[in-house]
Amino acid sequence: MAKPRVFSGVQPTGNLHLGNYLGAIRNWVGLQADYECIYCVVDMHAITIWQDPADLARATREVTASLIAAGIDPTHSVLFNQSKVAAHAETAWIFNCVARMGWLNRMTQFKEKAGKDRENASVGLFAYPNLMAADILAYQATHVPVGEDQKQHLELARDIAQKFNFDYGVEHFPAPEPLILGEATRVMSLRDGTKKMSKSDASDQSRINLTDSADDIELKIRRAKTDPAALPETVEELETRPEARNLYTIHAALGDESVADVVAAFAGKQFSDFKKAMTERAVSRLGPLTAEMRRLVADPGYIDQVLRAGAERANAIAEPILAETKRIVGFI
Ligand code: TRP
Fold first, then answer.
1. How far is CA 47 from the centre of its chain?
2. 0.85 cut: is pTM over it?
3. Among 84, 113, 276, 326, which one carries the catalytic annotation?
């Protein structure tokens, strides 16, 4: 039997960091064994908010490099950038005519991103979830690994698939399902344990980038915010200690163990002992990845060739589906 098809996308806006790696990309790598995986660098989504063209091009290559460095095998999985495959835009237009204004008006991410000045948000930002639905359904993908923040958009993609099928009296698009992979690792800022680790944080000390050297990683962990209390004796204690909880969560995730294991291993010890162990683990686990990442970034010709080959394979899957979509709609 054919493997079920997974689609997921990542925006090329700025550098990827440890939060992206532990929260999403690591899971994408693991899915390759059991699913037919299509992974897309969504440059068309990126421009729903202004992007400097040179920065966008650089970020597209960098994100591609980090996916490869993290273990996405581009000869196995389909890896490409969205703008190279026209089926995304073409399907999205049809979905603009399927989705209702009322549905999109309920999207919380639009409200957050548009902020107070909604009148000045791009139309693309409003229609963003329709393009995301098109990404998935252009391949008739059935499974989508997404984080908490994208669940509402995936729900909308299901609604669009169902309304399309109902309106046209077909069974053309599957209703894609979220793929929840264990407990998502929520990585917080190294400077403030209550804020998500983010590429838009002004302080580079707040995050570990996938391009950081071993020295950078060491320094950032050494400077990471902690609290004055002794190391916790129980997991419950961590609930009120966001910085300690964050560092324990990262250490556990990097060692494929539970936070309870980490609590047990360090109870009664000093923060300096913990940070030393954490640094060693982070450097040994991330070092090869970040070195490979820097090597790939220095070879843009190779990255471009990977994206071209990926787009050809993506197109071969999407083309017959798009032809059928158009036929159903009545396009001749
Ligand atoms: N909106 C997603 C994000 O910002 C990225 C994305 C675009 C995506 N298209 C997708 C994710 C399709 C899953 C499936 O994280």
1. 17
2. yes
3. 113
